[in-house]
Amino acid sequence: MVFSLMARSLRIEFPRAVYHITSRGDKREKIFENDKDREIFLEILGSVVERYNFLCHAYCLMDNYYHLLIETPDGNLSQGIRQLNGVYTQKFNKIHN
Fold it and tell me: What does pTM read for this prediction?
């Protein structure tokens, strides 16, 4: 199974904004097959939070979607979320293909 995370419309971005981010698998397919997938996602999320200076206030990882509560001191949400989704999708597809 190959999956991709669904894109959403553009958000207005500005410094110190707080966003509720949600993303789910294409056709509602699973994006987390097991706890190892969740650990990989959280490792990537940690590196994105550090690299893009995000504050992650909360997260929820379900089988076919996730929720994040992210604050962006630098107003750069789309860059970081693109990195998160892209890197995780590549790793998931490599592991599960």
Answer: 0.88
Type of residue found at 48? V
Q: List CB contacts of 35: < 8 A, sequence separation 6 or more.
A: none
pLDDT in tens, 22-64: 999 989 999 999 999 999 999 999 999 999 999 999 999 999 9
Name every residue whose Cβ is closer than 8 Å to that of residue 45 and which is 6 or more positions away in sequence. Answer: 56, 59, 68, 84
Domain of residue 63, residue span:
17-96
| CATH, residue 84 | 3.30.70.1290
Tally of CA atoms within 13 A in the half-sphere of 75 that contains its CB: 4
Start-to-end CA span in the chain (Å): 6
> What would the two tokens of residue 40 be?
């990989």
Is residue 47 one of the residues assigned to a domain? Answer: yes
Q: Per the domain annotation, does 1 fall within a domain?
A: no
